[in-house]
User: What shape does this take?
Amino acid sequence: MNSSSADLVPRDGFQEFEGDPNGWVGGRCGYLSRDPHTGRLWVKRSGEDSKLNWVELNAGPGTGPMLLSGIGPPEGIVAAPVGSIYSDIADPQHPVLWQKTANSDEFGWFPSLST
Assistant: This one.
């Protein structure tokens, strides 16, 4: 753990942090955290500005699920495999997470979490 980063809140919805961010990094729902040494990724599921509720994502290379972000909803625009997660950061104060539940084209996205 990088305890010197204990009070960091991700800027622009993204934070690099060494290790598991639970108990160390604050943030809003939809924020992302990545360990720069291992590439492991976490998404903030709930808990306005708390330092808990980070969930690890499996976002490896290849044809498996992907972790994506952008401005605006992905439906009809972003193609990805089922299981992928998209963070709509159009409103940084209230990002919306979308989950790909069907199809392999740009359709099949459904909002799963928002603040």
Remarks:
- The longest strand covers residues 109-114.
- Residues 67-114 form one domain.
